UniProtKB/TrEMBL annotation:
Protein name: 3-dehydroquinate synthase
Pfam families: DHQ_synthase (PF01761), DHQS_C (PF24621)
PANTHER family associated with the record: 3-DEHYDROQUINATE SYNTHASE, 3-DEHYDROQUINATE SYNTHASE, CHLOROPLASTIC
Domain 3-dehydroquinate synthase N-terminal: 82-194
Residue stretches making up the 3-dehydroquinate synthase C-terminal domain: 197-328
Keywords: Amino-acid biosynthesis, Aromatic amino acid biosynthesis, Cobalt, Lyase, Metal-binding, NAD
Transferase is among the record's keywords: no
C-alpha cells in the first residue's frame, strides 16, 4: 500500500447573541466577546462593512462605532467604513466584492483581524464571501439587520455572491466568528422586507416543528403588525431550528439533501427571472406554497393542512403567486430552476415535500403536470379572500 491516510476534524463553535443597541457604550456584549479571545501581544484589527441603507437609517452609526472602539484594548478600529449597496445588487455586481477585498489589502487586515458585516442577508452573504476568500479566511462577525438575516441567513455557515445571474454560484461554507442580532435595527425595515423575512420561519416550521407552526398561526397577525415580543420569539426559535439543523446534520452539505431549502428550487429561479424584483423571502413564500400544494396533489399532505399553510401565508401578507409562477408549459422558465437547483449541489435531484405540517420527506423527481396544476390552484387562492374552509380547486 503506497499511500498516506490523512484524517482530521475541526471543531467549530460560535455564538448568536440577541441584543439591542449593540454599539451603545452601556452594551458591553461586543467588547466582552473580544476580551474573551484576547491574546497577549496580539492587537487585532477590525474592519466594518456596512449596508448603505443602514447608514441612511442610522446616520450616527459610524460615530457610535468610533466611540465604542476608541481606545479599545483588544482591537484597533479601521476608521474608514466600507459602505456597500444594500439588497441583492450587492451580490450581483462584482465591484462590491472588489471594494471589500481592496479594503482588506489597503488596511492590512490579516487572519487575526475581524471583518464585521452590518446589514441584510445580501450584504452579509457578500461580506462573508469576501472575508472567506481574503487571505484564505478572515474572521467574520455578522450584525444582522433584517428579519430574514436574523432568523435564517445570518446565523448559518453559508456565504456567497451571484454569478451570471445564478444565485450563490460563488460561495463557501465558513462558520462565522460570532453573530449579533440587534432588534433595534429592525425598526427601520420596510413592511415588505419585514414580512418577507417571516417566510423562512414558516419554512423551517413546516419541515421541522409542528408546534412552532401552530405558534406562528396563533401569532400571525402580531407578526405581520411587527409586534416586538412575538417577532423576537419567532426570530430566536427560527434561528435555533436552523442552527440545530446545521449542527446536527450535514453542515457543509456534502450529501444531496438540502432540507432547509424547502420551497427554494422555484424561488431562486423566480428571483433571477424577475431580475430580483421579487424578494428572496417573497419568492420563498411562493415556493413553499407551490411545494405544499404539490404535496397535497401527490397525496402526501392532507387538504386541511394544505389550507392551513396557504391561510398562514396569506394572513402574514406573503404572496402565493406571480405572473412567472403561472405555469402552463414545461418550457416555462421556472422549470429550469429544478435543473439549476440540482446543478448547484450536484448528485441526485433531491426535493423536500411535506408529509404533514412539521414533517418533510424527500423525492427525486417532480411531475411537471402536477406542478402546473399546483400553480393554477395558487393563482386562484391568491385571488380568493381566505382559504381556510374552502376546498382546493383549479
Ligand atoms: N447564507 C444563507 O444561508 C442565506 C439564507 C437565506 C437567504 N440568504 C440570502 O439573503 C438575501 C436576502 O436577505 P434579506 O432578506 O435580509 O434582504 P436584503 O439583504 O436584500 O435587504 C433587503 C433591503 O433592506 C435593506 N435593509 C437592511 N437592513 C435594514 C434596516 N434595518 N432598515 C432598513 N432597511 C434595511 C437593505 O439595504 C435592502 O435594501 C438573499 O440574497 C438570499 O439569497 C442567504
Ligand atoms: Zn432562503
Amino acid at each position: 500500500m503506497n499511500y498516506i491516510q490523512q484524517d482530521f476534524s475541526v471543531q467549530f463553535s460560535y455564538k448568536v447573541f440577541f441584543t439591542e443597541f449593540l454599539f451603545s457604550l452601556e452594551n458591553r456584549l461586543f467588547n466582552d466577546l473580544l476580551e474573551s479571545v484576547h491574546e497577549e501581544g496580539i492587537m487585532r484589527k477590525i474592519l466594518f462593512v456596512i449596508d448603505e441603507n443602514i447608514t441612511i437609517h442610522f446616520p450616527k452609526l459610524g460615530e457610535q462605532i468610533d466611540t465604542y472602539f476608541k481606545d479599545n484594548p483588544y482591537v484597533k478600529l479601521v476608521p474608514e467604513k466600507v459602505i456597500v449597496a444594500g439588497g441583492e445588487i450587492a451580490k450581483n455586481e462584482e465591484r462590491f466584492l472588489t471594494t471589500i477585498i481592496d479594503a482588506v489589502n489597503e488596511h492590512g487586515i490579516d487572519r487575526h483581524s475581524y471583518i464585521v458585516g452590518i446589514g441584510g442577508g445580501s450584504v452579509l452573504d457578500l461580506t462573508g464571501y469576501a472575508a472567506a476568500i481574503s487571505h484564505r479566511g478572515i474572521k467574520l462577525i455578522r450584525v444582522a439587520t433584517t428579519v430574514l438575516s436574523q432568523d435564517d441567513s445570518g446565523v448559518g455557515v453559508k456565504n456567497g455572491v451571484n454569478y451570471k445571474g445564478k444565485k450563490n454560484f460563488l460561495g463557501t461554507f465558513v462558520p462565522p466568528f460570532a453573530v449579533f442580532n440587534d432588534y433595534h435595527f429592525l425598526t427601520t425595515l420596510s413592511d415588505r422586507d419585514w414580512v418577507s423575512g417571516i417566510s423562512e420561519a414558516i419554512k423551517v416550521a413546516l419541515i421541522k416543528d409542528a408546534a412552532f407552526f401552530d405558534w406562528l398561526e396563533q401569532h400571525a397577525e402580531q407578526l405581520a403588525n411587527r409586534d416586538k415580543e412575538a417577532t423576537q420569539y419567532m426570530i430566536k426559535r427560527c434561528a435555533e431550528l436552523h442552527m440545530d439543523h446545521i449542527a446536527g446534520g450535514d453542515p457543509f452539505e456534502f450529501g444531496s439533501s438540502r432540507p432547509l431549502d424547502f420551497g427554494h428550487w422555484s424561488a431562486h429561479k423566480l428571483e433571477q427571472i424577475t431580475d430580483f424584483k421579487v424578494l428572496h423571502g417573497e419568492a420563498v413564500a411562493m415556493g413553499i406554497a407551490l411545494d405544499t400544494v404539490y404535496s397535497n396533489l401527490v397525496g402526501s399532505l392532507s387538504e386541511t393542512e394544505t389550507n392551513r399553510v396557504i391561510t398562514l401565508l396569506k394572513t402574514i401578507g406573503l404572496p402565493l403567486s406571480h405572473e412567472y409562477m403561472n405555469l402552463t408549459s414545461a418550457d416555462d422558465p421556472i422549470f429550469a430552476g429544478l435543473r439549476e437547483f440540482q446543478e448547484h449541489l450536484g448528485g441526485r435531484l433531491t426535493i423536500m415535500l411535506l408529509k404533514s405540517i412539521g414533517t418533510g420527506y424527500e423525492v427525486h423527481e417532480l411531475d411537471a403536470q402536477l406542478i402546473m396544476k399546483a400553480s393554477q390552484i395558487l393563482r386562484n387562492a391568491q385571488e380568493s379572500p381566505n382559504q381556510q374552509k374552502q376546498p382546493l380547486s383549479c
